């Protein structure tokens, strides 16, 4: 059995739900064959989220960590390629913190690449009939903060661990006027199952174009 740790976030910015936690919860209740899935909800708070992530990794002792967050406005599931060492918050987190131009880890590398086969993961989601893409930026809010913290933990303490970050579109109940793309929780969960499957079975990523010009 492959031990998988999934993390999602609590709601933030006035929303009543967070699609990341909705989807993660569904996967934990019905995990892919051959996996043992633990789901943990992280606070949408700088610093606190990393403490909670480190505690969850220590307790679950996973082989694979997939952190999941919300990227409202994106039309599909996006698998993140790179985490950068900066917190630059456009809005306050749930504790009212708003760091600007601060490092996630003082003295850490400028960036880390995900230790997942990101292109194979995207291809697996598309094969499941769900829109997906490689993302070149996880932003500079708490999602990137957690992604970088996970990558730094892997690089400095748990080199055998593999991990990465996935962003989900809004849940349908968050889009009252239909002006933004949305993805039902069940489809988002299916996407995460596809990503887990690809991550477990693929060691050498696909060599296909998934770049961006802007």
TrEMBL record:
Q: Which GO terms describe its molecular function?
A: pyroglutamyl-peptidase activity
Q: Which GO terms describe its biological process?
A: proteolysis
Q: Does the keyword Zinc apply?
A: no
Q: Where does it reside?
A: Cytoplasm
Q: Which UniProt keywords apply?
A: Cytoplasm, Hydrolase, Protease, Thiol protease
Question: What EC number(s) has UniProt assigned to this enzyme?
Answer: 3.4.19.3
Q: Name one Pfam family in it.
A: Peptidase_C15
- According to its UniProt record, which reaction does this protein catalyse? Release of an N-terminal pyroglutamyl group from a polypeptide, the second amino acid generally not being Pro
- Active-site residues annotated for this sequence: 80, 143, 167
- Work out whether the entry's keyword set contains Hydrolase: yes
Per the record, its GO cellular-component terms are: cytosol
| InterPro entries on file | Peptidase_C15 (IPR000816), Peptidase_C15-like (IPR016125), Peptidase_C15-like_sf (IPR036440), PGP-I_bact-type (IPR029762), PGPEP1_Cys_AS (IPR033694), PGPEP1_Glu_AS (IPR033693)
The protein's role, per its UniProt record? Removes 5-oxoproline from various penultimate amino acid residues except L-proline.
Give the record's subunit note: Homotetramer.
By its UniProt entry, which HAMAP family does this protein fall under? Pyrrolid_peptidase
The family assignment reads: Belongs to the peptidase C15 family.
NCBIfam families linked to this entry: PRK13197.1, pyro_pdase
Protein's UniProt name:
Pyrrolidone-carboxylate peptidase
Q: Which organism is it from?
A: Streptomyces rhizosphaericus
Q: Lineage, please?
A: Bacteria, Bacillati, Actinomycetota, Actinomycetes, Kitasatosporales
Which gene is the coding source of this polypeptide chain? pcp
């Amino acid at each position: 059995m492959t031990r998988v740790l999934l993390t999602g976030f609590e709601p933030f910015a006035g929303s009543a739900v967070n699609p990341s936690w909705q989807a993660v919860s569904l996967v934990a209740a019905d995990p892919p064959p051959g996996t043992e899935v633990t789901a943990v909800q992280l606070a949408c708070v700088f610093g606190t989220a990393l403490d909670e992530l480190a505690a969850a990794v220590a307790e679950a002792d996973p082989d694979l960590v997939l952190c999941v967050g919300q990227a409202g406005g994106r039309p599909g599931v996006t698998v993140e390629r790179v985490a950068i060492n900066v917190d630059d918050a456009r809005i306050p987190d749930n504790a009212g913190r708003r760091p600007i131009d601060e490092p996630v880890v003082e003295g850490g590398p400028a960036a880390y690449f995900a230790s997942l086969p990101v292109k194979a993961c995207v291809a697996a989601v598309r094969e499941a009939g769900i829109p997906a893409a490689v993302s070149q930026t996880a932003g500079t809010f708490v999602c990137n903060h957690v992604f970088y913290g996970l990558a730094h933990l892997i690089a400095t303490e748990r080199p055998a661990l593999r991990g990465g970050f996935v962003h989900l579109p809004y849940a349908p109940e968050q889009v009252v006027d239909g002006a933004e793309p949305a993805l039902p929780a069940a489809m988002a969960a299916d996407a995460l199952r596809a990503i887990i499957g690809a991550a477990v079975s693929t060691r050498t990523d696909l060599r296909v174009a998934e770049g961006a010009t802007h």
